[in-house]
């Protein structure tokens, strides 16, 4: 399948959804958690980014947050993020389901974004569930303190899903509903190794609808997907927009 055929497929669809993974943000300079050259190559992420580690060694957890995760908030959306926002504005896709925590879809102008793994915009208290703006974490760390909940005084953490935590129920339910209703799914930059996100394309296929992968590198759906476009998202999606006569722009530039 080429981009002309994909554009035709998009035009014919009524309920297309997109699912994205780390591969869409590598062109914004963010590391891929799981690729061989990614952030976690040679280390076990669960050693730091788990609820168990968060409670047993919060200083180390927050050092990692401050040095590695917090700087992600300076990243800028790239051409692929902007292209997806343009597709949504044009009414060609209904939603973006993302495994990313970097908020770059929203920064590019996407409106309906379902975040399966949380985000770095806010913090939350694992004990009582209260939410805080992420600045509550940053201010505490800058003052040399660990961030604590104003209500229950337990530690609060960035609102990202840690390796031993469940995904947010609401986001999972929304993602399943979108996938179940979809008549086309575009998977961009996800190796589809992590559940339950990797089950969503299967749901679309089982409903008899096409799934198209835009991804560099193998996935478990390479044989069953309707089509695979082995191309960088930052090239393929803007070209797709051009074929469709759309002009992506940066919302916040
Ligand atoms: Zn609390």
Order of helices and strands: HEHHHEHEEEHEHEHEEH
CATH architecture of the largest domain: 3-Layer(aba) Sandwich
Bound heterogens, unique: zinc ion
What's the number of structural domains? 2
Distance between the termini: 33 Å
Structural class: alpha/beta
Biggest sheet strand line-up: 3-2-1-7-8-9
Number of helices: 9
Average residue-wise pLDDT: 91
In CATH, what is the homologous superfamily of the largest domain? TPP-binding domain
State the low-pLDDT regions, or none: none
The strand count comes to 9
Give the helix/strand layout.
Layout: H1 3-12, E1 16-20, H2 51-56, H3 58-69, H4 79-89, E2 95-98, H5 104-108, E3 113-115, E4 118-124, E5 131-133, H6 135-142, E6 157-160, H7 169-181, E7 184-188, H8 200-206, E8 211-214, E9 227-229, H9 233-243
Parallel strand pairs: 1-2, 1-7, 2-3, 7-8, 8-9
Antiparallel strand pairs: 4-5, 4-6
What can you tell me about this protein's structure?
With 253 residues, the chain is an alpha/beta fold. The chain folds into two domains: 1-30 and 77-117 and 167-253, Rossmann fold, CATH 3.40.50; 38-74 and 119-160, SIR2/SIRT2 'Small Domain' (2-Layer Sandwich). It has nine helices and nine strands. The chain has helices spanning 3-12, 51-56, 58-69, 79-89, 104-108, 135-142, 169-181, 200-206, 233-243, and strands spanning 16-20, 95-98, 113-115, 118-124, 131-133, 157-160, 184-188, 211-214, 227-229. The strands form two sheets. A six-stranded parallel sheet has the order 3-2-1-7-8-9, sandwiched between helices. Strands 5-4-6 form a three-stranded antiparallel sheet, covered by helices on one side. Helix 5 (104-108) links the parallel strand 2 (95-98) and strand 3 (113-115). Helix 1 crosses helix 9 and helix 7 (169-181) runs parallel beside helix 8 (200-206). It starts with a helix and ends in a 10-residue tail after the last helix. The structure holds zinc ion (ZN). Zinc ion binds at residues 125, 127-128, 130, 149, 151-152, 154.
């Amino acid at each position: 399948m080429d981009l002309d055929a994909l554009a035709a497929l998009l035009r014919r669809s009524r309920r297309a959804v997109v699912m994205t993974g780390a591969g869409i943000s590598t062109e914004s300079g963010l590391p891929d958690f799981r690729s061989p050259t990614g952030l976690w190559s040679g280390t076990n992420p669960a050693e730091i980014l788990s609820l168990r580690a968060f409670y047993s060694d919060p200083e180390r957890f927050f050092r990692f947050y401050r040095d590695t995760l917090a700087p992600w908030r300076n990243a800028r959306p790239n051409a692929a993020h902007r292209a997806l926002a343009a597709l949504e504005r044009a009414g060609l896709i209904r939603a973006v389901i993302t495994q990313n925590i970097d908020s770059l879809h929203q920064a590019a102008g996407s409106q309906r974004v379902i975040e399966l793994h949380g985000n770095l915009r806010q913090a939350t208290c694992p004990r009582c569930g209260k939410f805080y703006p992420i600045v509550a974490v940053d201010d505490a760390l800058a003052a040399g303190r660990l961030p604590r909940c104003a209500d229950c005084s337990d530690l609060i953490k960035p609102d990202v899903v840690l390796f031993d935590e469940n995904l947010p129920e609401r986001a999972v339910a929304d993602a399943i509903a979108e996938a179940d209703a979809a008549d086309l799914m575009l998977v961009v930059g996800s190796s589809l190794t992590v559940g339950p996100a990797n089950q969503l394309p299967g749901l679309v296929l089982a409903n008899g609808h096409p799934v198209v992968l835009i991804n560099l590198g193998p996935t478990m759906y390479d044989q069953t997907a309707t089509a695979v476009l082995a191309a960088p998202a930052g090239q393929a999606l803007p070209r797709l927009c051009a074929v469709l006569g759309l002009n992506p722009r940066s919302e916040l530039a």
